[in-house]
Amino acid sequence: MTLQSRRRTQHPVFPRSPGLRSLRGIAPVLFAASVLTNPLAIDQVAARQASPDTRASSRPDSTAEQKPRQYTYRVINAYPHDHGAFTQGLVYENGFLYEGTGLYGRSSLREVVPETGEVTRIQPLESRYFGEGITIFGNRIIQLTWVARTGFVYNRQTFERLRSFTYSTEGWGITHDGRRLIVSDGSPTLYFRDPDTFEELGRVEVRDNMGPVTRLNELEYVEGEIYANVWESDLIARIAPESGRVVGWIDLAGLLPGRERMGTDAALNGIAYDGDGKRLFVTGKRWPKLFEIEVVPGVRSR
User: Fold this and answer.
1) Domains in the chain, ordered, with CATH?
2) How many Å is the Cα radius of gyration of the chain?
3) What is the pLDDT of residues 91-114, one digit of tens each?
């Protein structure tokens, strides 16, 4: 088996059907043996390799649907970022970034000074957990894990773990709209959950004019829209929460040149929004920089 990426091995691309949410959803069955026999291996990230296409392979002819608007970016600031951090979740709150990192034996919850990259607080996860997305709801930090189907709730000020909870899917990204948690599992489906019980309240399929959009990863709620990293791409989808329609694509190609990326798994992942300052931060797995960007209309030349 060739080891190339974060957590998946390569699979054929199957046509979508109502019962097939995501190629990523079958990962626990296909990779249980390798994960369980050596969960601390550095090359564990290879188990998440997938096709470079971000959509389902069979797409309906949906020319009647409006095409998403195209956006690019302007860099406002670039700040230091721990290039050892396998970023899975990112949130801005009261002058600090809160970051969830992944990998077995290396996963953590962190408090970070944005301008310097200094880690001022850290809470490691047990080595059996692969940390995923985080969000802050009130005075609580909620953190997902990948295939353990277990999440954790922490006190935001102290990082004390208050409780755990379970869910029936993989855990990828998480954010909230002030009322409901919004969760991704790598499929085109976003789940709305109760922030206290984690009970599912509803779900929506994310689509653009070409069909379902899969591999939705880290999430951030920005001015009434859901921003979603698309795993192993330089794209962020701007999603209308109630319909699931992709209303825009932000192309961040070239933000961190390939020569500065620490390995083949150093994908764009991590979106944080400062609502008061109207600042948008982005970074990636093992990226040495955190960027403050402005999103602007247009198509980026490649």
Assistant:
1) 7-48 (no CATH), 69-297 (2.120.10.30)
2) 18
3) 999 999 999 999 999 999 999 999
